[in-house]
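Appendix B. One record, verbatim.
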Amino acid sequence: MTRQTDVVVIGGGQAGLAAGYHLRRKKLDFVVLDAQGAPGGAWQHTWDSLHLFSPAAFSSLPGRLMPAQPGSEYPDAGHVVEYLSDYEQRYELPVHRPVRVQRVRRDGDRLRVETDDGVWSARAVVSATGTWWRPFLPATPGRNVYAGHQLHTTGYRRPSDFAGQRVVVVGGGNSGAQIAADLSAHEGVDLTWVTRRPPRFLADDIDGRALFDAATARRRALDEGRGDTGGVASLGDIVAVPPVREARDAGLLKASAMFTRLTADGIEWADGTRAAADAVIWCTGFRPALSHLAPLGLRGPRGHIPTHGTRAAGEPRLHLLGYGDWTGPASATLIGVGRPARDAAQQITGLLT
């Protein structure tokens, strides 16, 4: 049996909940379909030592401040999961889980949302599936030859899992620096950190608050036809959160140039130098998880769907939320997703009324 509603929100993480909050305020009939078995989105799958870049008060979804975590200025992932669970209950958001959306198709004046738990028919869809579920691995020569353990950021949990091992961490962004710092502090781990270019640490006094301001200023400048300010990228690549700062200042975070290939038992640089490795951790980013939208035929360059704000350029009944700056300034962050979620709900209301 096909169930009907005004709006289907795909994804029950922070972006999906922000969309639900604003859709509820607009008094629209909607459901949130979440593939996860419990609240918290991707935050319930991160590594143990992960903390936010910003204090709790600057890491909140619309309508409810995140409470401070006792003893920690920057909340950990577990605190975020608790906050999202409470947020979902507080606003009585209609989340259905676990429900995995398989395809979205056009169906006359409606959109047909096919899931592993039946079919929904909606007048509009908000896709808020994020990027965590689509890790990116570069096409590095020798990846299929290497006999050691390879994993992505998504598979890393704690340094003790690598005790007594030689570990290569690949990536000069925040996840690479944080995981490298995590491993460097653990006795018995022989760490090699490799980056494509020398690491660019932000100033020690910059945290998520400044990053949100920079992303917002960039989007405003572009919208007004002024020059590109460079946004967050102009400040650096790595936020110097306390563990990263401590490892850097102790001389434990020394990056090597990117190797050219993997060998059977390690890595090799362009000059022929080799290093043995028991494990390689690829902290090489993500791509938007949009395979469920493939039947709509909207994908553009780099796997993105062209948008006007959050609205898909080729399908006005579809909005994309929380995938990065291309769907709203800092929209992949807790504090940044509220404004584009509000705009999407406003546009959907205008479309349906």
